[in-house]
What we know:
The protein is α/β, with parallel strands linked by helices and 301 residues long. It has 12 helices and 10 strands. Strands 1, 2, 3, 4, 5, 6, 7, 8, 9 and 10 form a 10-stranded mixed sheet that branches.
Amino acid sequence: MFKTVISIIIPVYRVRKYLEACLDSLLDQDFLLPYNILLVESASDDGSKDICEDYQRRYHNVYHYHYDKNDGISVGRNLGLLHANGSYVIFMDGDDKVEKNFLSSLYQEVEKYPDVQLVSAGYSIYDDSTDSIIKHVPGVSYHGSGSKALEKLYSSKKYNPYCWAKLYKREFLLLNHLVFDSSMGMFEDMLFLSLVLANANEVSFIKKSIYLYRQHQESTVHTCKDWLTPHFECFRKVKKELHRYHKDLEKKIFKKPTRKIYQQIALDCEKSSSHYQKKKVTLYKEAKSKLKEIYQHELSR
């Protein structure tokens, strides 16, 4: 029996319209080593469950795990991590797609650097209404420590803050108890990625835009009006966790409310939601003000 190299974890909840395209893109990979797809489906009443069952029936490497209650995407990802048996794991959203060389491109870095604990790639924004790519967001070229990459994440808009388009060493996640915070409704992936980088000795970033992030009218990008509040909640939690285990790193990144940090928060909000794109000046001022409030609160505790 061949050992599974990569397990792809996909939380599934009401994505019937997009799920088949997502799965077809994963099943049409040029990657030649064993991999599997884990569909963690939670109380989907739109036909998503039927699609999961159908693909499990048709493909030997697709597994469907049904749960009667939807506890959110973080719980789905954590459950998928428990079910995974691959040496490496990938987290993917059920309404996205990937390029044919997605798995092979990520795994090439593992072959090049056998001790690497995270590999990250770029992505493209895929417009559902036009069925086309509207923007390429290439990654950066980097190989080194996770802590240095985390510093760059908080100071450069070129670093992808999402949990997808990345390959993680499963044993590394389990040994360090790195899971998603189910209490967060948004930016849970940025918190997860920040803690992964803080604990990783060796990571690798590549430029290829090989993940297709789909934007559609039902997505949070179009429906959410307040991205700053949950972003600052994520910021507080990252700072708190680093203070517990990585104080030197916390001091480097969060020594004071620097211009780089509040600009990065504003940039993330601007990239995430079209709601902010016409009010950049207001956005930057609000981000700066809220950041100062956090530091005043922390100092007064």
